[in-house]
Amino acid sequence: MTYLADRLVKTFPGVRALDGATLRLQPGSVHALLGENGAGKSTLIKIMTGVLRPDGGRILVPRDDAGAHGKEPGPATDLVKGPSDTDAGLHEVRFSGPQDAQRAGIGVVHQERNLIPAFSVAENIALQSTPRRRGLVDRAAMRELARGCLDRLGVRLDVDRPVSALSVAQMQLVEIAKALATDSRVLLLDEPTASLTAEETEHLFGVVRRLRDEGRAVVLVSHKLEEVFAVADTVTVLRDGRSVAEAHPLADYTQEEIVNLMVGRAHAARRLDKAPVAPGTAPALRLDGVATALGHRDVSLSVRPGEILGLYGLVGAGRSELARAVLGLHPVTAGTVQVHGRPTRITSVGQALHRHRIGYVSENRKEEGVFLQQPLTRNVAVTVWNRLSRAGLIRDRDERDLLTTYQERLGIRLSGPAQLAGQLSGGNQQKISLAKWLAADCDILIIDEPTVGIDVRTKAAFHELIVHLASDGLAILLISSDLPEMVTLADRVLVMRDYRLTGEVANDTHDYDSTSRAIGHLLHAAAV
Ligand SMILES: Nc1ncnc2c1ncn2[C@@H]1O[C@H](COP(=O)(O)OP(=O)(O)OP(=O)(O)O)[C@@H](O)[C@H]1O
Question: What number is the ipTM of this complex?
């Protein structure tokens, strides 16, 4: 019961996103779809789920599944012949929209949730398959259907709760249950663990294994290779829109070999050397006994020029909210914030940058970080307009030079400087947002979850950049849920739980085992 995306081609203006990519899925397996930012993963998924139509290539589904849906593409003689013997019994389909793909048994869980927040869990799960009686919604049957789907996943959840009251991890499980309600044989999970904690990730993978054992094909798109190796059976690697490994057993590869396949050449991780902060250096940013309307209590910390201070905690611990309170986006109700020794009350991100030289790379880049309808040049230059403008005018060439600098440093995949930011792949949009702040003339940089959705090679380049910036004298407050990232970069790590700091871990040796153990201890100790 193979599903096959066969030699797909898709071109956007100036970019060949897919150039003959093939994805072959077998039932009862977890399949990793890997590749650098811009390699074509999302485009492939969009074609398989009927959102985009390919310019070339074919989608083949098992004959049973093909009968009820999708448009038959041509005379019967075209249909059955597959590229190999094992594809006999497959049927080519052309999806004219997502519903066709759904009817062909292909379901997807996107990074951007597709749930209706005001609807209950049951209403969301049954959205595409609402049971009706005499034309009216049969609410009892709808609840039953939802409970059945959640049970099959081993998930306990009140089906009458509104989705808006759920955690991110629970919403994800509801989306998977929704895909089960339409009996998806193939389930595509696009970076499902990006905002999950380690425990939630483990639980999700338990669900994924269950789906596999039921005979479904689960596709996992992820940049977190440790996780991929923990759960996937087979792998397809895309590079520049082509498959360079095709439905291969993952066990045949090491992580390093997979990275080399993605990158196209040997990729060696470099050791990062950062200058230590001179003793006696005065803090650039200092908080004393800060409380906020959101619930922070007695938060004191300081970051010195040349230092990277890590702020670690589980999702929901209050780390991003603290950063936003410092920047005036939430009210500070007690305590003091000092910038270079002067008590300060910042009222906006703009004021933070222009008056206090504090840059803020938001976690929420889609909404806050990138102007999707603006060209890339404008996006990167937005923080430095004051510097670039001569008599109120900004020269295109200056903007272009700036973009070129960061395009090279971060390996941003773009078709030209005039391209709109909204046309980049997710990871490349992320890089644009980072570039904008790296270009800004800041003394203090607050960076929130910088590398979510960013591929391995860029992550390493980005880490190098952060270390350079700190070595050049920037004070950096780094918020990250990525523990290896924290251990690699931070000089010290503060642990936050329930809007309070629970302790500090020195990270002088950057030794993963000892630092992560100490951090885990603080997280746990605070829970008691
Ligand atoms: N609507 C669009 N218009 C123009 N170009 C596009 C569009 N969508 C994608 N592209 C381009 O196609 C290429 C592949 O993008 P795609 O989103 O499939 O990559 P990806 O592998 O999913 O990357 P990421 O890991 O960053 O999510 C990129 O170069 C991207 O800029």
Answer: 0.97
